[in-house]
């Protein structure tokens, strides 16, 4: 149990999540406001992504090459083709950038994608719940109060410039909302035969066109 005087000194961070844009391809925006100054510290969040949503590792690598975002996926290469009912949970460690308008505020966005769900009998959308992420700090030159911040195991480096592991710390926080809900459209079971038939016909037509073009314009020895 934390003494009242220590608990009063430990000002919990505030975490806010937003899903930007519409459809299956969204941007997850995470904002953190710390209760104390974290000058010289790296700030990140560790989010649990349920099977209904994923981050494309190839898209993430391209964004990192252009210094658009800094993030680590665990596992690092999830199956982007798997439907929701065959996909595992994924951990996302997302580094946050400081907000120039607020010395204690940090934010970052990362593209996320909804997975296809199993067809249902009714046309109601499926709900994907994103719980509030864990706030992480890594301070190489600053001292963190042991009563407020506790060491945690995180498989991600503190800096994007190197892969040297470091000691992350975490504390409790006040989420703006306990969970964020993503509504995903779900197909109807009664449409499955029609969808399969159209898919098969489209595949056969495309294969026939490719074969015809190959026979007409190809060079065979």
Automatic annotation (TrEMBL):
Per the record, the GO terms for biological process are: GPI anchor biosynthetic process
Output this protein's name: Phosphatidylinositol-glycan biosynthesis class X protein
Q: Does the keyword Secreted apply?
A: no
Bilayer topology: Single-pass membrane protein
Main role? Answer: Stabilizing subunit of the glycosylphosphatidylinositol-mannosyltransferase I complex which catalyzes the transfer of the first mannose, via an alpha-1,4 bond from a dolichol-phosphate-mannose (Dol-P-Man) to the glucosaminyl acyl phosphatidylinositol (GlcN-(acyl)PI) intermediate to generate alpha-D-Man-(1->4)-alpha-D-GlcN-(1->6)-(1-radyl,2-acyl-sn-glycero-3-phospho)-2-acyl-inositol and participates in the sixth step of the glycosylphosphatidylinositol-anchor biosynthesis. Probably acts by stabilizing the mannosyltransferase PIGM.
* Pathway involvement of the protein, from the record: Glycolipid biosynthesis; glycosylphosphatidylinositol-anchor biosynthesis
Record keywords, A-Z: Endoplasmic reticulum, Glycoprotein, GPI-anchor biosynthesis, Membrane, Transmembrane, Transmembrane helix
**Which residues are listed as membrane-spanning?**
none
* Matching InterPro entries: PIG-X/PBN1, PIGX
- Extract one GO cellular component term from the record: endoplasmic reticulum membrane
Q: SMART domains under this entry?
A: PIG-X
